[in-house]
Design goal:
The structure is a homodimer.
Chain A: E1 8-22, E2 25-36, E3 42-47, E4 50-54, H1 59-71, E5 77-84, H2 93-103, E6 111-119, H3 123-131, E7 134-138, H4 149-166, H5 180-191, H6 197-206, E8 210-216, E9 226-230, H7 232-238
Parallel strand pairs in A: 1-6
Antiparallel strand pairs in A: 1-2, 1-4, 2-3, 2-7, 5-6, 8-9
The structure holds a DNA duplex.
DNA sequence: GCAAAAGTGTTGTGACTACACCCATGA
DNA sequence: TCATGGGTGTAGTCACAACACTTTTGC
């Protein structure tokens, strides 16, 4: 999405790799775009949510703005994870033409700050996104993308996997209350592995920032699972500095 | 250092936090700069090695170039660790004036890619640096700096500590051959803690990429220590993916 | 009562911490 | 021979991996 009607800084952009999780799939938010291919024909493909920053706009805030315009959400987990500036990263003429057309400026070279966001997909923010030509696509079925966005997604995914191993961020992708099994599935899908559920439970419950609620699943054809919630406050309190070094 | 005589991209710069280690101190490479303070008086202070990128220059290569111009070295451990773009990061009028004067351009706002470098300080590269107004300063005695460079250093140091815990990068700061004790001191200084030397040895030698040489210290008034070298090849081979998650 | 997923305990192994003394050298 | 830093071993604790059965519900 390009900011028409704002004064942009045409040298610097933000791009957001937005992850969501639903029906046991890791999904990513992509935007459909219309462009003219090298032969001048109208075509469609997908790109990451992103935008040029405006003059005097803070980078982080530009990323927040981009996502808010797209999902209606403004307090989501969002961090910069890379900054990409190879001169040849926009190598297709059609991509460069598209930038020139949509901005109405002569774009030379764009350096982009890549952001990483985690969203709990709900009906409401999903509807909001659809109105903006955005849609949630399974990470395993990402089509060909504009610019170097495929590369940015791969780096974002690696970042997600690393973060998930080192900090409790999985909750950002789940609703307020969730079952241990849902959490385990999330880990399995993102890390692409199978986890022993006894060991997973022990490990995740030992750190006592998962609070068991009084509520159970209803209407399921098996023993209903308890719901839990993540208590960020407890986590922050007992977050410890790991002092060993293990390589 | 500003590239006079090159065509620069005045929106984007690189800044390098360059660490060195000598006489049991963690040091950082700073450049002395002349400028006019807000009252117009000639003054001196320090800044990080850095530069605007030139048109069509790759960011990573801009960082390599900056350091090569400064130290004569071109194959050093160098990684991007942050990208900083608050509009108010250059808040002092004197700093903005200095940029305008040295570049001969009207600078509006600069977004900078922060790089992190590790160097084994030698007489030769140290002499080279001195010729360029650069000097090695103990990390604990860093004076007031230009721009937001103090902040960048703090973030670089945090990055160094984190990296040192997770990857064997300490060797980059030491000469080719070193004693276990030197390595331990390096860990202690950077992590700001005391380590038990029996446990340190066990841990570091267990991973068998430290090769004991036939050579010992000479001329020391105590039992001479063996020298070791780091074998990157062995490390790369047995580098394992840590699959658990520990938070 | 049966299908389907939830939930639970034990054991072996390996990594970490804490801790104190002898060894080789130069002066 | 003494001062200096190099170099070594053991015991307790804790985290992790591997592994199979009982429980609760809807149909």
């Amino acid at each position: 999405m390009i900011s028409l009607g704002r004064t942009i800084n045409p040298h610097i952009s933000v791009d957001c790799v937005v992850f969501g999780f639903s029906t046991n799939q890791l999904k990513i938010l992509l935007i459909e775009r219309e462009y003219r291919d090298d032969s001048g024909k109208q075509a469609r493909d997908h790109k990451l949510p992103g935008d040029f920053i405006t003059l005097n706009e803070d980078l982080d805030l530009a990323a927040v703005r981009t996502l808010e315009e797209l999902t209606g959400l403004n307090s989501i987990y969002l961090h910069q994870f890379a900054f990409i500036g190879q001169p040849e990263r926009i190598w297709k003429k059609s991509d460069m033409d598209w930038l020139n057309t949509t901005t109405g400026m002569e774009i030379q070279r764009v350096v982009t700050a890549a952001y990483f966001a985690l969203i709990n997909i709900t009906e409401s923010n999903s509807d909001f996104a659809i109105k903006n030509n955005a849609s949630w696509i399974d990470i395993k079925e990402v089509p060909a993308l504009a610019f170097d966005h495929r590369n940015i997604i791969d780096r974002g995914l690696a970042h997600l996997q690393k973060s998930l191993r080192n900090e409790p961020i999985g909750f950002e992708l789940l609703p307020e209350k969730f079952t241990i099994r849902e959490l385990q599935s999330l880990y399995e899908v993102i890390l692409d592995c199978n986890l022993d559920n006894r060991n997973f439970r022990k490990k995740i419950l030992k750190s006592n920032y998962l609070i068991q609620l009084d509520e159970k699943q209803i209407g399921v054809a098996h023993k209903p699972a308890f719901y839990y919630r993540f208590d960020k406050h407890i986590y922050n309190k007992q977050k410890k500095e790991y002092l060993g070094f293990n390589f």
